[in-house]
Amino acid sequence: MKTARSTLLLTLLFGVLVAAPSPAQEAEENQAPVAPNFAALQQNWWSYFEGSQAQVEPRIEIFLDNVDQQISNLRAQNQETAQSVIEAVRDNLEVYLSLLGDIDLLSEILPESAASYSIDELPTIATTVRNAVAAAAAEELEVQREQRILDGASRRRDGLFKDYLDAEYGDERWLTALRLVRARTAQEISERRLVILTQSFELATSYADAATERLNLALERLATDADEEQLNALIADVEAKITAVATAQEVQREAQIAASSLDLDTAQSRSEQRLQQQKLLDADVRLAAAGVALAQAEAKRWWTELQLDTDPDLETIKDTSAAASDLIRNLGDLVPDWNRQTEDELLAVQSVDRDGLDRTSRRLLDQRLGTAQATLTQLGNLDATIANLDMSISVVDIAVAESAGAFRSWLSNMSRLIETGWIRATDSANATLFSVDDTPVTAGDIVQALIILIFAFLLSRGIRYAIRRVGEKESAGTQASLYTLGRLSHYTIVVLGLFIAVNSIGINFGNLALVAGALSVGIGFGLQSIVNNFVSGLVILFERSLRVGDYIELDTGLTGTVKAINVRSTLINTNDNIDIVVPNSEFVTTRLTNWTLGERILRVRIPFGVAYGSDKELVRKAAMEAAEAVPFTLTHMPGREVNVWLVEYGDNSLNFL
393, 328 in Cβ contact below 8 A? Predict the structure, then answer.
């Protein structure tokens, strides 16, 4: 019993000793942070500046006072440097202190969703979505920029800390520590800003997502409360927009006349022309805006008619929708060019030195500047209206699909996709890739030329195949002639196809003569061997001293049958059934023995020897019987009989032939 009580008391006493903090621990926890000592900075020296705004503010004042006092202990030449650095540190600490406070980021809030939306409300919602997406993209760029700043600040801090460790004690080490404080405060400011910018980006992204969802909801809940009177008002609005387009076209025509009827002899005249050209561009933009406004009004009208079920002509609506889509696609190509031209005009006007210019020239510059700025404003509005029109066309297409039914809608969509794809392919094919002496060459021209060349090759191949089939039933001499005819037909068709393909592009043959002259120089240097073999092949074909099927022998000892005469080389099949490619020039420049040039019958001489004492008549008889037993030997043609002659008494044998 006593042992159990003793154990219990010891356990309680140990628990009290462990749970109670020691006086040394309490003193360490309650001890105020110590300002950094520039002579011996600790690794955790920045903890002095950590804490709440109320805690850090008095520490900063103490730190700055200490530094100001220590500056006076530096050498005179270092005090000025220290003053400039401490000013930067003071500014950084002030900004850092402001960032320690609570920063409330306000997020935009969408209004409550409605039970239904009209088509007139869609552009406003779509504009909200575009602005929100653009704002989120801008916030993302700011986050990326701040991250790069933070990375640079971190590298500078690490480098300065290394310099501090390597610096000698004294003024150099003290100044390095001060620069380290400046770099560390800049890094901390960047870290705080990055956190704030990241939160702002997340809020902007969330708002953009919510706005996009609201737009989708509005499209789902799209409805109309229009009546016949409002429909008539929409029809009248379309008529008014048609009139506005006609007016814009007239203004554009007048601007074209004004821009093309100026004298360019003086600088003032050239400035006036630039002004008129910018006015013409502005007229083009206003005409495009009028066209987009007309398409938007037509989309509202047709959608309203579909909703009121007034039995509108669906084909007319589809044609109008397709025309609007074409307008959007064309403007998508034109608007960037208009922006670039207008920005170039602004830069040109702003770079002109106005000193020494008279009042008229200055007024022209002001007019050019004002016109360019107005055009940029119009272009900004045009981008928004194009986006709204694109959405309205989608709404009309959905309404047409619902009205026409699923199958007819599918057929209509497929037809429209094919038509749109064909138009885009045609537009791409008509785009100029390069020019040859003022002759534009488009992708369509190149495709057309390739088709002509492919057709020429296929035609040549078909003709050669037909000639080869005909030659299979003819004699060997006729086959060789037909082969020559096939090769020449191939070259002729390919050359004609090449000329037709080049002519289809629109390139003048006079220019080709210049190109051929340039190529002749290249041939003289680099393609000499190839051209030599090609011309030699033509000589062989025309001269007919060598034909397919001939048995030949070259000075090199090569013997065999000619299998093919190609552009660069001739294919020879030897007695060992080995195909050897021989350049055509060798048959023209070296001596050639053609065993079958005049006729296909030839004599083969085979020398052999027998031992002395053999019966010569018996040898002759045996050799003739062996020769006549060969299937290709002629036995019944007068003057072509087999003969055996004793030609020599050799050293060890009787030699026969």
Answer: yes
